[in-house]
Amino acid sequence: MHYNNNKQIKLIFLGPPGAGKGTQTEIISEKYSIPAISTGAILRSAIKNQTELGKTAAKYVEAGELVPDDIIIGIMKERLAEDDCKNGYILDGFPRTTAQAIALDESGAEISLVINLAVDDDVIIRRMSGRRVCCTCGATYHIEYNPTEDNKTCPRCGGPLACRKDDEPSVVESRLKVYHEQTEPLIKYYEEKGILRTVIGQEKLEDTTALTLNVIENYLKG
Ligand code: AP5
Questions:
Q1: Distance from first CA to last CA of the chain, Å, rounded?
Q2: pTM of the prediction?
Q3: Which of 14, 115, 149, 180 sits at 20 to 30 Å (Cα–Cα) from 21?
Q4: Measured in angstroms, how far is the CA atom of residue 1 from the centroid of ligand 1?
């Protein structure tokens, strides 16, 4: 496979809650050896460790609301300045508002590709109840679409699997509403920059992965 070696992958995954952003991010990060940065994972770790950030974030995350822009932008500016981001990264869950997208542009990030994982709301609602997350390493599974042997133990680290607190149906409903109001406008924002590609995310997991890899390979070859 011939790649234009000067090309860095600075990739954003856009999409509603449960679209599969985290799942695809993990696969791409491993395949291309580039760091994956998930604002959701950063916040969940802060909540688990009861840091100041975690205490502030918990009330927003658990209600399905967005954490205020100034907090998130501050976290991401610091994270993206770290050494491991010099040769590219994948952003899962950031940016999520126009203010965050503008802050990212103003930081000089020069995003190369935005993949919009498109999944209908009714599929999301059905999916969320089956998601299981490892309490130790954060890996994500699904009791039907991406099962483990017993759906109780993480095959990667042996940690226990659990449902996410914000996957409760009433919270999922709020998260979808917030997505449509505040994050969906970013599709147009990146479309206008000519770097948006849409991948249908409601096929089988392996089909979504194949479509996603195809978009990245085309970008690298171009
Ligand atoms: P975050 O963790 O980012 O949640 P989210 O965007 O709502 O996305 P999810 O993690 O729920 O889903 P996903 O798209 O990663 O799907 P997954 O791969 O797990 O954010 C959580 C909260 O933190 C937010 O609500 C907010 O409060 C706060 N926050 C985070 N970032 C913020 C920001 N930038 N600004 C402000 N606040 C912020 O897949 C879902 C399930 O489906 C899994 O079980 C998986 O196995 C399965 N699956 C995946 N793909 C497929 C497929 N193709 N077919 C069948 N099943 C599939």
A1: 12
A2: 0.94
A3: 149
A4: 32
